Amino acid sequence: MTAPLIEGRGLTLSFGSERVLDQVSLSIRAGEIITLIGPNGAGKSTLVKTLLGLQKPDSGEVIRKPGLRVGYVPQKLAIDQVLPLTVKRFLTLTRSATRNHCEKVLTQVGASHVIDAQMSSLSGGEAQRVMLARTLLLRPELLVLDEPTQGVDVSGQAELYRLIDEIRHELDCAVLMISHDLHLVMAKTDQVVCFNRHVCCSGIPETVRQHPEYRSLFGVREADAIGIYTHEHDHEHDLSGHVVGGCGHDHSHDHHNHNHGHNHGHGHSHAPHNHADAPIRQEADTAK
Fold this sequence. Notes:
The strands form four sheets. A seven-stranded mixed beta sheet has the order 5-6-7-3-9-10-15, with helices on one face. A three-stranded antiparallel beta sheet has the order 2-1-4, covered by helices on one side. By secondary structure, the protein is an alpha/beta fold. It has helices at residues 44-51, 87-91, 99-108, 124-136, 154-171, 212-218, 220-223; strands at residues 6-15, 18-28, 33-37, 59-64, 70-73, 142-146, 174-179, 184-186, 191-195, 199-203, 206-207, 226-228, 236-237, 243-244, 280-281.
């Protein structure tokens, strides 16, 4: 097995008296897609910043491939409506690139037609494609996507997921996606990590291509890009994200190999789906 591009081991971080990361271990290898899911305030962005070296943990270690090239696509880019900024200019704000090169990466993401358009005039889906194109100029080894489908309609989400998978294969890069949607994820995700200050569990999303209701909703082609992730834990979280109830021990201090199976208290409804359970590999609260 190849060495991870990034590996976090036993990461712990507190802001004042508030524990934000609690004995978190996570590794990301070339060519794989990992979706990090959890409620708002779960510490997902803090974990990513720590893995990338933008935030120093209180304890634990992060091992990164030397010279790792990272491409980052934020949730949303706020552009002043009166600021004259074309797509071509946006692509070259921090790096030089010819018009032909810009056209090439825009073509890769299906947005070549907007090269001379104003950034402020783009739709949500077009803006996400342009930001993806911008990262392709860097040819990243790791692509980090923060809520990549936020503000994009359902069919647009499927298209973006398919595009992300194509980029992963073309560049052989790893993809780390951050989402607060606990159920709807990219079908080709290699691993879903359910996170709320600690790793609650992880597993593979169920593909929905055989489910008529999703094929009807997305269409046959689009349905292949979407998956359902079902999971259970033996503990719940209070409104502050702290572990309460369930397994009878304090997760904030004790993280030793436990297999979980509980109802999740993330503020999301976990009513049963009319789908077969996805295969789950429980790796809850494991400190390495």
